[in-house]
């Protein structure tokens, strides 16, 4: 195999694997005569997605924008808190246990509380997406700051740099790859948050669509919703990965040199 | 830790340029300096009763068995660590907090991977006064300066490369440039050539000596390579095992510039031998 062929094959691998998985699923459904209400065939799911494209897109769009707003808030909040936690050992020891405690709470449990406070609709979805996705951002940014090489710090301190200058010149650039790595995790979590909220107490979005479809025993539509979430998740993940490469090229040094 | 930094804005104005008659006699003076620190359960005596005096423009090397507190000594001189006992004076001024404008180079180059080599070398200008306030407007002028210094260590044309595109030796050269670009009066070298192969290391000794002959800064080199110490230094201090004390002060009376040939001459070899014996004595006693 030439290098060119290998590269092409690597590109094609995700599609091949997905195709094989869906094919096996399709065949299994036919071979074992699985009822559509239990597990619809992928071809039926895609058919449903196509037939109900208009309503599906509308609900997807609702889920997408609430997720993105929650996610953006999580970046802002997580970055700020991460810098605080990473820059000061005092804030670290004070805040870290609280953060862990907060992260351990099942987010599905806070949706009903949120409904009491802000009602039904987009707002609880945004808030759930925010609270579920900001933890990995905080932890990663703080880690990036806390792992500055002591020698680097010494070089700057002996030049006469203040703590603030060290944070700006070394801390923040160094935390960037950590931030962008966490964004890929955070965006998928944000989708989970939105859909949880839509499922527990929503009146729109893919989560709501799936819930009402399953109440009507409409399995193909439920699965169509699942597929839609998965596709949106992959697209947003890819967007984050692309931004990561653009912003922190130096952290991917091996590939640039090669 | 907070108390030591941060508050360093006032005080020691113009560390780089102030004259001082008394400083001519001893630029760095340590009197009975000790450092203990408490870890987990026990108190560790890292350094005990270190006394030495370094003239302005002198090149000093500190050698000793591993773990004898050589690096600790450097941190005490620059005020990065406060001494538990004794006093440190730099340029006649008692050191109580990190002194400013010192050039430092460590074994790993600690260059910032997100900056080009030139921008790495320019870093001190962004921090040290009076350059800091004029850096932004005179960037081109400073970049020229960095380019010239890079060229003088054999890195002409590498300014736009990122550190990870350079070899280990080239990174260490850039590291030296960063430590020297702002023409510090005091240069601290903590085994800067330790991780390099023998050929590169010996080449860098020559470069280091050349830079010193041109600029005559005061330098403190911590190393465990005795040939390196004798090649570069005017005075070699041998430290004892932990807790470290200065046990021998050896003046190296070999004319400069020294070359690799010099290192094979009997007198050079004798000095290395003598130091070697003291160290092995310290290791076994």
Question: What can you see in these coordinates?
Answer:
The complex is a heterodimer of chains A (258) and B (285). With 258 residues, chain A is mainly alpha-helical. Chain A contains 11 helices and no strands. Chain A is flat. The model of chain A has no long low-confidence stretch (mean pLDDT 88). Chain B is α/β, with parallel strands linked by helices and 285 residues long. Chain B has 2 domains: 25-102 and 186-199 and 217-285, P-loop containing nucleotide triphosphate hydrolases (Rossmann fold, 3-Layer(aba) Sandwich), CATH 3.40.50.300; 112-183, no CATH class. Chain B is 35% helix and 22% strand. Chain B contains 9 helices and 10 strands. In chain B, strands 6-7-8-3-9-10 form a 6-stranded mixed sheet, with helices on both faces. In chain B, a hairpin with a 6-residue loop joins strand 9 and strand 10 (246-251). In chain B, helix 3 packs across helix 5 and helix 8 (226-232) crosses helix 9. The longest helix of chain B has 19 residues, at 266-284. Chain B is globular. Residues 1-23 of chain B have low confidence and may be disordered. Classes of the chains: A mainly alpha (258), B alpha/beta (285). The interface between A and B is medium-sized, with 24 and 34 residues.
Secondary-structure blueprint:
The complex is a heterodimer of chains A (about 260) and B (about 280).
Chain A: H1 3-31, H2 42-51, H3 53-87, H4 89-104, H5 110-118, H6 122-146, H7 150-159, H8 163-201, H9 205-215, H10 219-247, H11 253-257
Helix pairs in contact in A: 2-10, 3-4, 3-6, 3-8, 3-9, 5-6, 6-8, 8-9, 8-10, 9-10
Chain B: H1 21-25, E1 28-39, E2 42-54, E3 59-63, H2 70-77, E4 85-90, E5 93-94, E6 103-105, H3 117-127, H4 131-135, H5 139-152, H6 168-180, E7 186-190, H7 198-215, E8 218-222, H8 226-232, E9 235-239, E10 246-251, H9 266-284
């Amino acid at each position: 195999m030439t290098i060119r062929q290998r590269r092409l094959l690597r590109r094609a691998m995700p599609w091949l694997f997905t195709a094989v998985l869906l094919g096996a699923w399709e065949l299994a459904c036919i071979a074992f005569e699985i009822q559509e209400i239990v597990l619809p065939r992928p071809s039926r799911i895609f058919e449903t997605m196509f037939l109900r494209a208009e309503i599906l897109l509308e609900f997807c769009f609702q889920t997408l924008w609430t997720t993105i707003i929650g996610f953006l808030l999580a970046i802002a909040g997580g970055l700020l808190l991460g810098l605080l936690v990473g820059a000061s050992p005092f804030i670290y020891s004070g805040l870290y246990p609280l953060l862990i405690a907060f992260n351990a709470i099942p987010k599905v449990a806070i949706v009903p509380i949120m409904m009491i406070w802000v009602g039904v609709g987009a707002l609880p979805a945004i808030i759930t997406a925010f609270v579920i996705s900001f933890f990995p951002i905080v932890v990663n940014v703080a880690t990036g700051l806390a792992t500055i090489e002591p020698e680097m710090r010494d070089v700057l301190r002996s030049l006469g740099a203040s703590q603030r200058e060290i944070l700006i010149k070394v801390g923040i650039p160094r935390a960037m790859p950590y931030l962008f790595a966490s964004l890929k995790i955070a965006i998928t979590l944000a989708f989970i948050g939105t859909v949880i909220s839509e499922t527990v107490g929503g009146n729109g979005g893919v989560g709501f669509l799936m819930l009402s479809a399953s109440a009507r025993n409409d399995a193909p539509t439920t699965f169509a919703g699942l597929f839609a979430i998965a596709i949106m998740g992959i697209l947003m993940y890819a967007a984050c990965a692309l931004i990561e490469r653009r912003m922190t090229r130096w952290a991917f040094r091996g590939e640039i040199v090669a | 830790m907070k108390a030591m930094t941060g508050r360093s804005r006032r005080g020691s104005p113009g560390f780089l340029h102030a004259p001082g008659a008394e400083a001519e006699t001893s630029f760095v003076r340590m009197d009975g300096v000790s450092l203990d620190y408490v870890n987990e359960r026990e108190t560790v005596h890292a350094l005990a009763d270190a006394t030495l005096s370094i003239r302005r423009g002198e090149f000093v090397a500190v050698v000793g068995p591993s773990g004898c507190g050589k690096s600790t000594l450097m941190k005490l001189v620059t005020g990065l660590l406060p001494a538990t006992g004794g006093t440190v004076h730099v340029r006649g001024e008692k050191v109580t907090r990190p002194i400013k404008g010192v050039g430092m180079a460590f074994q790993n180059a600690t260059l910032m991977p997100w900056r080009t080599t030139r921008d790495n070398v320019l870093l001190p200008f962004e921090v040290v006064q009076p350059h800091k306030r004029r850096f932004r407007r005179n960037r081109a002028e400073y970049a020229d300066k960095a380019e010239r210094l890079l060229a003088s260590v054999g890195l002409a044309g590498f300014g736009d490369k990122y550190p990870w595109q350079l070899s280990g030796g080239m990174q260490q050269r850039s590291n030296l440039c960063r430590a020297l670009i702002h023409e510090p009066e005091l240069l601290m070298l903590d085994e800067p050539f330790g991780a390099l192969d023998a050929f590169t290391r010996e080449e860098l000794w020559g470069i280091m000596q050349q830079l010193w002959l041109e600029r005559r800064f005061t330098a403190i080199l911590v190393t465990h390579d005795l040939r390196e110490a004798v090649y570069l230094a005017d005075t070699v201090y041998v430290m004892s095992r932990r807790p470290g004390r200065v046990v021998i002060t050896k003046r190296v009376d070999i004319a400069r510039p020294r070359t690799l040939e010099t290192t094979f001459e009997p007198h050079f070899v004798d000095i290395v031998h003598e130091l070697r014996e003291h160290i092995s004595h310290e290791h076994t006693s």
